[in-house]
């Protein structure tokens, strides 16, 4: 075989090697970019409404220590701005939120159960618990309208002037009320992972006579 034929064969081999390399590289790039596209889609941010717990450690009159949960509802916009709807005890005499040490376990109570929907920021008492396991109860475009309903329903709830007690109507009653009042379905499945009704006192209180009027659907 002549040297000319050898050079031609080498040239063809080199061309084929380059072509195969390009094909392999193209396949790899397709897989990588395709996977990246899927990952980006999977983590695409949307509006959500979540129910989140904050643990509270109580000492009962008999000296027994128990851990129960205060539930708060967070509306997060897809741009990461969040708002929290949270219930709390309110002292109508002082206009302040009393310390945990002053909260009554049972009725009668000098305090009222109140709620508020406000921007969720670092100074909020529930802020440190924002990453606790939570349950998403609404997602997508409906989240904004549901949050607006929460705000309106909170005003009606507060007007009802419901007495507050740790083991009666409380912040969990408020959370349940705004979810039910704004037609967020799910019953007890809306509770965060690991939280059962027995660990969220007040959650199961529904249909209070004082709420007969506020419970009508709000649009």
Protein architecture, described:
With 219 residues, this protein is of the alpha+beta class. The chain is 32% helix and 22% strand. It contains three helices and six strands. It has helices spanning 3-42, 142-159, 171-181; strands at 48-59, 65-76, 82-90, 112-119, 135-139, 162-163. Strands 5-1-2-3-4-6 form a six-stranded antiparallel beta sheet. Helix 2 crosses helix 3. The longest helix is centred in the N-terminal third of the chain and has 40 residues, at 3-42. The protein is globular and about 50 Å long. The model is unreliable at 18-42 and 212-219 (pLDDT under 50).
Question: What does the secondary structure layout of this molecule look like, with pairings?
Answer:
Layout: H1 3-42, E1 48-59, E2 65-76, E3 82-90, E4 112-119, E5 135-139, H2 142-159, E6 162-163, H3 171-181
Antiparallel strand pairs: 1-2, 1-5, 2-3, 3-4, 4-6
Characterize this entry briefly.
This protein has 219 residues and is an alpha+beta fold. It has three helices and six strands; from the N terminus they run αβββββαβα.
């Amino acid at each position: 075989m002549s040297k000319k034929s050898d050079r031609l064969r080498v040239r063809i081999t080199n061309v084929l090697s380059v072509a195969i390399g390009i094909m392999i590289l193209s396949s790899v790039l397709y897989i990588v970019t395709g996977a990246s596209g899927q990952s980006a889609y999977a983590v695409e941010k949307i509006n959500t409404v979540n129910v989140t717990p904050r643990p509270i450690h109580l000492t009962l009159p008999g000296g027994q220590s128990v851990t129960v949960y205060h539930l708060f509802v967070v509306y997060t916009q897809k741009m990461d701005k969040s708002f929290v709807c949270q219930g709390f005890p309110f002292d109508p005499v002082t206009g302040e939120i009393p310390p945990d040490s002053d909260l009554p376990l049972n009725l009668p109570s000098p305090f009222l159960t109140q709620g508020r929907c406000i921007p969720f920021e670092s100074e909020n008492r529930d802020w440190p618990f924002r990453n606790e396991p939570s349950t998403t109860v609404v997602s997508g475009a409906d989240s904004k309208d549901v949050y607006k309903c929460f705000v309106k329903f909170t005003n009606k709830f507060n007007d009802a002037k419901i007495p507050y007690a740790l083991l009666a109507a409380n912040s969990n009653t408020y959370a349940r009320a705004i979810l039910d009042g704004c037609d967020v379905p799910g019953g007890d499945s809306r509770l965060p992972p690991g939280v059962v009704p027995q660990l969220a006192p007040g959650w199961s209180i529904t249909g209070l006579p004082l709420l007969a009027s506020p419970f009508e659907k709000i649009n």
